[in-house]
């Protein structure tokens, strides 16, 4: 299994080629190095998956970067069942997005830059999932954050885009700060950062507690919660979800790759990877489950009323990520990863379809100004319909199996699980509703845009539609590897991933399993039906509802005023401190004071130094002699002679 | 000495003979680049004799051990890089004369003697050979006032410091009856630290401080570095400085080791003062060349920490730091040379405005070197600093490590300012035209690759230094 090194390093090579030579050599051909590299990674990932399926896993340090006593920083790779799934998800979606971008980004002046960043992102993400220690994970974590920043602000001339990039970066700081502390705490308590010794010895800490603000807390709980902080930021969970919808300012392929399928799922991956830590702390598990459940419902409610198609899908992503955390929180890590894997395909498909629509509409994003696009862009319509059916949990499609698995596991876990199951089931209703609201508003009914837009409506080029078709296959079939025994399947996925994450706890009867499954299908259908009535049959209902429940509508429309709240409690005070205290006092008085004051001080001492520096030799010699005598004097005084 | 012992001296003998040959070859060879090429070949030939040279000859006056070999490796690399960046540059400065390369080789020979000196007299001979060559090289652009002035200043102050060094050697001899470094050590272990002994320590310390430009004996550095040909500045800030560190390490950590408690506080004081002077005055410079001169003062202040920490850890950290510093500093100077053209100095910060737009690759390389000088991972500069700090903490000088971190944070201001000028300012006036050449490109490539390579994969270099000091 030595060829596994090719997986991350092919995209790295493509990045270097493109960033160094792209501007001159590959002005319009920049997609070649990047796309070929990621195709190579995909092929190797498939080979790795086959090896893993044959029972081969690998955990090896490539080399040590810094060795300093106990502190060892190495570049190492861990290939196990979890990594193999992530490799397939990352490389396959990344490859399709690379192909799609050939059509979507052509003519962009930053074409080579775009592909360089995509390659750099792919490399970073692969390093993140393949790491065998927390520090390399942290490196990949920050590197994907950097790429996300670069790609959100790709059209940096646009103020909203560069602002959104900064917002994503800064919001992630909050989570990553906790993550960083968690990593440091692991090293301080266990003396190593490699996964396997950490996971083997973490149990020895179970008796240790520390007092924080007078509250006795278990140290494992603290570590788990700190790590979860990072996951909350990266995976846009409450209360750090605010950056993801704004991140839609980036090019749509980026939204599909980074902000739907891969980077934002790194948080779920982290929790699943660190499951030996989380499993030892019931408190942390409950926090994860509740945060996930609340986010799933909360984000879905916002998505109900938004009109910007990419934002609707973004909130949908936040909501679906909530499901994954919910699953991890009840101990069903396998179900969480399963959903991560199916979600990657149908959500990337939704984004790429949205991109295709934007392409046809000349960049228009407001679904109230669309309608009837079905007959102009059939491929986009059908693929997006499949993705929406999949996310709504229609039996047989990928999303059904994974979502059903999560809801059933949550229910079976009992306790807090029952509560989050309820949240998840309600969210499932809303998910089906907003997904089909989007479909009906965009593709059905009459076209509501301008005449000029109507004139330009066209299906997207092959480079874009073929990835859509391929992703649609994933959106349909990705779930078939995890069909529950109840429906005659073998639950292969859960068995496959069990060596890494174990089996979920909790028991439930067949009747209960039928109940949860039936209910989730039922609410899915109900959601679709409601959307059909609201947006195709009786279009006045949503308008009347909005008027009747004006306050609720306004809260949802304004996304629960989170941005305003943060603006008030964080942004404004920070700016105030920055402008008045840091810039005015620290920078103005202290730093400028030192920078300008030191020379002023030297000048004030007399013009001697300046004269010396202006080149008079005798002064130089005098200074040397003075230095010599000074040293002698010091020694004389100290030794007391 | 038996004639069979000659292999220990072979590298020095070969270097001396070849340096003379290169000097003579200038009479018959018209193309000066060829002379440069001969110098590089000579280094390769000399290096060939290094592996068989281990041993001690002349009753311990000349030592060829792992320590000296590591330094010789630095000197050779430094010489090769300097030759590579010189040829085109000398033409621009209209000073392309063949003796330039011979002088570089003589300076290197002096440095090799210094690194291998087991006796204070040999050390002095090597030091003078190096210094005399450097005086000439500093004033090599004969028609330029700046260069002449720098040369004269360097010469006079150098003579001053040589006198101090001789005075120190004399006093040591007067009290121990020997100039052999190992014998001094064994004599001193039985002696009490008298005032006159401490005086001689101070004289040696001052003389070496002058060579490695520790404040307040650094005054010559900015003027000389600015006035000298840029290629020589690059050379001086690396090779001779490393040679200074080699003798400082050998004399203080071997010969004067018994007096360690007495000289360590002095060296700490000099180190902090040097970091302060170098970093704070560098902030003020508008000329990048002068900024790099002050930065080289500051870096000497960092490297001294390795000697303060002492032991295998400290010395190997210091040696690694000098090795890493060579690549990043010569790299930065190479960029300056690249910017220099017939009618354009290319030394001021303003000349770097918008370089990223007009010459992205050059700007990218400069960015790399500036990051490395600041000490940002994954560049080599980070690795160098990391091991220095680790040695300091390991030897119980955590506070000194913290002080150093603060100073290197200050240094980010002036290094990254260059980056800001390149990337965040619009180009002004006519676009800078670069005067590249294949050899300069090669030097840049070597420097950049090693800065990255050591940053990403440092262990071979770290182990190399650990083994030779262990």
How is this structure best described in words?
- The complex is a heterodimer of chains A (641) and B (470).
- Chain A is mainly alpha-helical.
- Chain A is built from 27 helices and 4 strands.
- A two-stranded antiparallel sheet of chain A has the order 1-2.
- In chain A, a hairpin with a 2-residue loop joins β1 (58-68) and β2.
- Chain A is globular and about 100 Å long.
- The termini of chain A are far apart.
- Chain B is mainly alpha-helical and 470 residues long.
- In chain B, α12 (260-284) packs parallel to α18 (398-424).
What labels describe this entry?
heterodimer, A: 641 residues, mainly alpha, two-stranded antiparallel sheet, two-stranded antiparallel ribbon, 27 helices, 4 strands, 73% helix, globular, B: 470 residues, 20 helices, 2 strands, 1% strand
Protein topology:
The complex is a heterodimer of chains A (641) and B (470).
Chain A: H1 6-25, H2 31-53, E1 58-68, E2 71-79, H3 81-104, H4 111-130, H5 134-152, H6 159-190, H7 195-201, E3 209-212, E4 215-218, H8 219-234, H9 243-246, H10 252-261, H11 266-273, H12 275-279, H13 282-303, H14 309-329, H15 333-361, H16 378-391, H17 398-413, H18 416-443, H19 451-456, H20 462-477, H21 492-501, H22 510-537, H23 540-548, H24 550-557, H25 562-605, H26 608-613, H27 617-639
Antiparallel strand pairs in A: 1-2, 3-4
Helix pairs in contact in A: 1-2, 1-4, 2-3, 2-4, 3-4, 3-10, 3-15, 3-20, 4-5, 5-6, 6-8, 8-11, 8-13, 10-15, 11-15, 13-14, 13-18, 14-15, 14-17, 14-18, 15-16, 15-17, 15-20, 15-21, 16-18, 16-20, 17-18, 17-22, 18-22, 23-24
Chain B: H1 6-28, H2 32-48, E1 55-57, E2 62-64, H3 66-92, H4 99-116, H5 120-138, H6 145-176, H7 181-189, H8 195-212, H9 220-227, H10 230-236, H11 239-255, H12 260-284, H13 288-309, H14 311-339, H15 355-358, H16 360-374, H17 380-394, H18 398-424, H19 438-456, H20 459-469
Helix pairs in contact in B: 1-2, 1-4, 2-3, 3-4, 3-10, 3-11, 3-14, 3-19, 3-20, 4-5, 4-11, 5-6, 5-11, 6-8, 6-9, 7-11, 8-11, 9-10, 9-13, 10-14, 11-14, 12-13, 12-18, 13-14, 13-17, 13-18, 14-16, 14-17, 14-19, 14-20, 16-18, 16-19, 17-18, 17-19
């Amino acid at each position: 299994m030595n060829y596994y090194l090719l997986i991350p390093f092919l995209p790295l090579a493509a990045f270097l080629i493109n960033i160094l030579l792209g501007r001159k050599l590959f002005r319009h051909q920049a997609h070649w190095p990047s796309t070929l590299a990621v195709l190579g990674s995909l092929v190797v990932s498939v080979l790795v998956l086959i090896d893993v399926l044959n029972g081969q896993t690998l955990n090896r340090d490539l080399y040590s970067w810094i060795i300093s006593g106990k502190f060892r920083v190495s570049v190492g790779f861990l290939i196990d069942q979890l990594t193999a799934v992530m490799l397939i998800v990352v490389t396959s979606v990344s490859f399709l997005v690379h192909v799609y971008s050939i059509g979507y980004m052509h003519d962009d002046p930053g074409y080579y830059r775009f592909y360089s960043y995509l390659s750099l992102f792919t490399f970073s993400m692969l390093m993140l999932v393949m790491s065998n220690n927390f520090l390399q994970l942290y490196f990949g974590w920050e590197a994907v954050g950097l790429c996300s920043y670069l790609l959100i602000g790709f059209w940096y001339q646009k103020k909203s885009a560069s602002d959104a990039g900064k917002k994503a970066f800064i919001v992630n700081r909050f989570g990553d700060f906790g993550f960083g502390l968690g990593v440091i705490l692991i090293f301080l308590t266990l003396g190593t950062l490699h996964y396997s010794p950490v996971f083997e010895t973490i149990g020895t800490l179970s008796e240790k507690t520390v007092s924080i603000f007078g509250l006795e807390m278990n140290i494992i709980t603290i570590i788990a919660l700190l790590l979860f902080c990072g996951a909350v930021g990266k995976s846009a969970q409450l209360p750090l979800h605010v950056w993801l919808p704004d991140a839609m300012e980036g090019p749509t392929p980026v939204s599909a790759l980074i902000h739907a399928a891969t980077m934002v799922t790194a948080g779920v991956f982290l929790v699943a990877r660190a499951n030996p830590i989380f499993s030892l702390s019931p408190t942390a598990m409950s926090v994860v489950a509740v945060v996930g459940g609340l986010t799933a419902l909360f984000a879905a409610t916002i998505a109900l009323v938004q009109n910007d198609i990419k934002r609707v899908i973004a909130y949908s992503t936040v909501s679906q990520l909530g499901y994954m955390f919910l699953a991890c929180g009840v101990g069903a890590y396998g179900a969480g990863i399963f959903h991560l894997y199916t979600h990657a395909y149908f959500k990337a498909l939704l984004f790429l379809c949205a991109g295709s629509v934007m392409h046809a509409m000349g960049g228009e994003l407001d679904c109230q100004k669309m309608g009837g696009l079905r007959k102009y862009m059939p491929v986009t319509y059908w693929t997006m319909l499949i993705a929406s059916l999949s996310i709504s949990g229609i039996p047989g499609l990928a999303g059904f199996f994974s979502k059903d698995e999560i809801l059933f596991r949550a229910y079976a876990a009992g306790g807090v699980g029952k509560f989050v199951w309820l949240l998840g089931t309600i969210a499932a209703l809303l998910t089906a509703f907003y997904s089909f609201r989007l479909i009906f508003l965009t593709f059905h009914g009459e076209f509501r845009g301008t005449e000029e837009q109507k004139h330009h409506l066209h299906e997207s080029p092959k480079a874009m539609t073929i990835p859509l078709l391929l992703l649609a296959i994933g959106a349909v079939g990705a779930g078939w590897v995890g069909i529950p025994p109840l429906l005659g399947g073998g639950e292969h996925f859960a068995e496959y991933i069990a060596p890494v994450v174990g089996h979920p706890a909790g028991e439930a009867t067949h009747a209960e399993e039928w109940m949860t499954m039936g209910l989730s299908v039922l609410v899915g259908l109900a959601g679709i039906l409601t959307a059909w009535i609201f947006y195709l049959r009786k279009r006045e209902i949503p308008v009347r509802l909005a008027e009747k429940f004006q306050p609720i509508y306004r809260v949802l429309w304004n996304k629960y005023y989170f941005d305003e709240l943060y603006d008030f409690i964080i942004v404004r005070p920070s700016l105030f401190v920055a402008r008045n205290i840091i810039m005015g006092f620290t920078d103005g008085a202290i730093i400028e004071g030192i920078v300008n004051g030191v020379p002023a001080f030297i000048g004030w001492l007399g013009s001697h130094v300046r004269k010396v520096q202006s080149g008079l030799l005798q002064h130089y010699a005098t200074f040397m002699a003075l230095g010599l005598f000074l040293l002698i004097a010091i020694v004389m005084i100290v030794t007391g002679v | 000495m038996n004639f069979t012992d000659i292999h220990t001296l072979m590298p020095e003998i070969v270097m001396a003979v070849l340096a003379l040959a290169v000097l003579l070859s200038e009479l018959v060879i018209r193309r000066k680049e060829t002379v440069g090429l001969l110098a590089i070949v000579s280094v390769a030939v000399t290096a060939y004799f290094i592996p068989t040279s281990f041993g001690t000859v002349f009753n311990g006056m000349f030592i060829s051990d792992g320590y000296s070999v590591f330094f010789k490796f630095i000197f050779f690399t430094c010489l090769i890089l300097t030759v590579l960046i010189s040829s085109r540059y000398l033409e621009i400065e209209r000073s392309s004369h063949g003796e330039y390369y011979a002088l570089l080789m003589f300076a290197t020979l002096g440095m090799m003697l210094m690194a291998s000196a087991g006796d204070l007299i040999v050390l002095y001979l090597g030091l003078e050979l190096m210094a005399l060559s450097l005086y000439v090289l500093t004033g090599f652009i004969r028609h330029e006032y700046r260069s002449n002035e720098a040369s004269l200043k360097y010469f006079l102050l150098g003579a001053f410091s040589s006198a101090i060094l001789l005075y120190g050697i004399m006093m040591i001899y007067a009290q121990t009856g020997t100039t052999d470094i190992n014998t001094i050590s064994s004599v001193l272990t039985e002696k009490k630290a008298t005032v006159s002994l401490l005086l001689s320590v101070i004289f040696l310390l001052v003389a070496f401080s002058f060579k490695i430009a520790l404040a307040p004996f650094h005054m010559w550095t900015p003027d000389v570095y600015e006035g000298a040909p840029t290629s020589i500045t690059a050379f001086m800030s690396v090779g001779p400085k490393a040679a200074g560190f080699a003798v400082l390490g050998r004399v203080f950590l071997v010969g004067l080791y018994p007096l360690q408690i007495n000289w360590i506080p002095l060296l700490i004081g000099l180190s902090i003062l040097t970091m302060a002077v170098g970093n704070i005055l560098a902030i003020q410079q508008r000329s990048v060349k002068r900024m790099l001169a002050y930065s080289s003062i500051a870096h000497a202040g960092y490297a001294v920490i390795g000697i303060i920490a002492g032991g295998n850890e400290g010395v190997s950290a210091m040696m690694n730091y000098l090795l890493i510093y060579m690549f990043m500093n010569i790299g930065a100077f190479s960029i300056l040379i690249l910017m220099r053209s017939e009618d354009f100095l290319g030394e001021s910060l303003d000349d770097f405005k918008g370089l990223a737009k007009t010459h992205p690759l050059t700007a990218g390389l400069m960015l790399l070197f500036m990051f490395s000088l600041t000490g940002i991972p994954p560049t080599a500069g980070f690795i160098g600093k990391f091991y220095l700090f680790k040695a300091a903490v390991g030897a119980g000088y955590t506070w000194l490590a913290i002080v150093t971190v603060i100073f290197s944070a200050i240094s980010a201001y002036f290094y990254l300012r260059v980056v800001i000028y390149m990337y965040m300012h619009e180009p002004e006036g006519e676009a800078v035209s670069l005067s590249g050449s294949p050899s300069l490109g090669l030097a840049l490539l070597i420097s950049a690759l090693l800065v990255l390579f050591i940053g990403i994969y440092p262990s071979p270099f770290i182990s190399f230094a650990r083994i030779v000091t262990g």
